[in-house]
Amino acid sequence: MRTAALALSLIAVLPFAATAFDGFHFSHKDWEVACDNTGTCRAAGYQREADIDRPVSVLLTRKAGENAPVMAELSIHLEIETPAFAELYSGTQRLMTIRLQGSGMAEFSQSQTRQLLAAVQGRLPIRLHADGETWTLSSEGANAVLLKMDEFQRRVGSASALIRPGKVRGKPLPPQSTPVIQAAATITTPARTLTPEDTHYYRLYRLLKQAANGQCYQAFADDEIKLDFKIHRLSDTRALAVSPCWMGAYNHGDLYVLMDSDLQQVLDVLDGDLTDYANGVLSSTHKDRGMGDCWSTKEYVWDGQKFVLSLEQTTGLCRGFPGGAWPLPTFVSEVRR
Question: What is the mean pLDDT of residues 163-176?
Answer without folding.
Answer: 94
